[in-house]
Amino acid sequence: MIELEIESIRVNKIFQSRVVLLKDINSDRYLPIYIGNSEASAMAVQLEKFETKRPLTHDLIYQMTELMGWKFQRIIVWKIENDVFFAKVIISRESKFIEIDARPSDALNLAIRAKVPIYAEEKVMDISSITIDPETGIPVVGNQNETSDSDGLHVPLGKKELDSLSIFEDFVESLDMKGIGFEQNDEDEEPEPQSEK
Q1: In this predicted model, what pLDDT tens digit does every residue of 152-191 receive, in sequence order?
Q2: Which of 83, 97, 114, 157 could cross-link 72 (Cys pair, CB 3.0–4.6 Å)?
């Protein structure tokens, strides 16, 4: 399994939908997952440490689980099927462990509140991750590990692989890469690396 961290919550400029961007802590791969606006807001409240007057739904679930003696252990994004991600929340009490099916957005909200690790199965990362080309700053979809030819260029993906990545076509085209080391100055210009501050 691959450990991830929440890099940011972004807005898809085409559909105005929210995308949570998870980063592999040991590489430059990112896992983008579309989430609902309310789940994104609940996530942002925790990430930005805003105080709310009353508990949000995920706060309530977290508190009830803990009060009943269960402890959150980790969450796993374990499958993608028909362009839908599946997650599991792992909780434990004494020596008993339970896996609970969950939407990734809910699982991530609970992971933030419980401060537990976030993981994805390697097969999910192979299918759905993107990387950032260090030369251009342009997102590249798919697993780019060990797929280089003698010139150092990536081997082209076949039709089957491209079809499996279709869910991310609009996302990759609309991704705002500001804050990940590259700044887009003009729509017609190539992105340039941001200067260090």
Answers
A1: 334 455 555 556 555 566 666 666 655 554 444 444 444 4
A2: 114
The domain total for the chain is 1
Q: Which domain holds residue 60?
A: 2-193
Residue with tokens 């991750």: 129
* Domain harbouring 7, CATH code: 3.10.690.10
**Is the CB of residue 183 less than 8 Å from the CB of residue 176?**
no
Which residue type occupies 79? K
The DSSP annotation for 52-69 comes to -SS--HHHHHHHHHHHTT
Which string of DSSP letters, residue by residue, matches 103-119? -HHHHHHHHHHHT--EE
pTM over 0.85: no
Under DSSP, the state recorded for 168 is G
Contacts (Cβ under 8 Å, ≥6 apart) of 22 = 4, 5, 6, 7, 30, 31, 32, 33, 77, 118, 120
Can you name the residues that pair with 24 across neighbouring β-strands?
A: 4
- The DSSP 8-state label assigned to residue 175 in this structure reads -
Paired tokens of 144: 């780019």
